[in-house]
Amino acid sequence: MEVATGKRIPFMAANWKMNKTSQEAVVFLSQILPAMREVTGVEKVVCPPFTALPALANLVKGTDVGLGAQNMHFEEKGAFTGEIAPAMVKEWCAYVILGHSERRGIFGETDEMVAKKIRAALAVGLVPIVCVGETLAENEAKQTDSVVRRQMTAAMTGLTPDQAAKIVIAYEPIWAIGTGRAAQGPDANKVVAGSIRPVLDGLFGKALAQGTRVLYGGSVTPANIAEFLAEPDIDGGLVGGASLKPDYIELVKAAQKRLG
Questions:
Q1: Average pLDDT over the chain, rounded to an integer
Q2: Is 112 a catalytic residue?
Q3: Catalytic one of 102, 134, 138, 172
């Protein structure tokens, strides 16, 4: 795992959401894993449903492909029916997606809850992939900057620089997720450079702000990934639907090209 110092290493994460049984996950990843392993210089992470984690952990063992969970609870244990504790995620994973818009919007997760999860993940040695982004209404009301800064501030305030350096940020405009309507590369880069990195700079200084990997997510496809990776402040992708298809490998290869 690369921390937020020096040159930013491209990062590609596949979020399979609620798709693929354990058996289907093994079959699919077995198909694309050889090609993924051929791509060097890119941090590669697959985030399947919880039920597939043990089987895929065995499959990726000894490779440079990492495994991540799509969510977790912030408590260590207790009467939280249906939830997964940080230590349970850590058994199989090195990464965890936190604050995804579907968790915030459908399941009512607040900025405060996401912040608690970030701290709980860091406490057990997980790398949080923290999602921020605005709704269509907020975008049209020109509230993108204030919304993203609020989410970033809530997520990062109170962390030590060492903790903050371990985090990967994903900018996901909610209106672009699963809609086929991706943001434009320059517009996404403007949010990263003008709203996300300044919060990090204010809290932890310029070096950490410039060293943190920030991904783009939201209707990313092999056809448009190059547009985002061409932007100077976008370091990879958090990919949903397109990561369920064999040509996902083309997105991973595109991240490799970003190295120049």
A1: 95
A2: no
A3: 172
Do the beta carbons of residue 31 and residue 246 sit within 8 Å?
yes
Alpha carbon of residue 255 to chain centroid: 14
Q: How far apart are CA 184 and CA 49, in angstroms?
A: 29
Name the active-site residue from 73, 100, 138, 231: 100
**Buried/exposed 170-181: b ≥16 CB within 10 Å, e otherwise:** bbbbbbbbeeee
CATH 3.20.20.70 fits 11-34+42-257, yes or no: yes
Identify whether 43 is a catalytic site residue. Answer: no
pLDDT, tens digit, 9 for 90 and up, residues 48-58: 999 999 999 99
pTM of the full predicted structure? 0.95
Q: Quote the percentage of the chain above a pLDDT of 90.
A: 90
Interval 120-145: pLDDT, tens: 999 999 999 999 999 999 999 999 99
Distance CA 12, CA 129 (A): 11
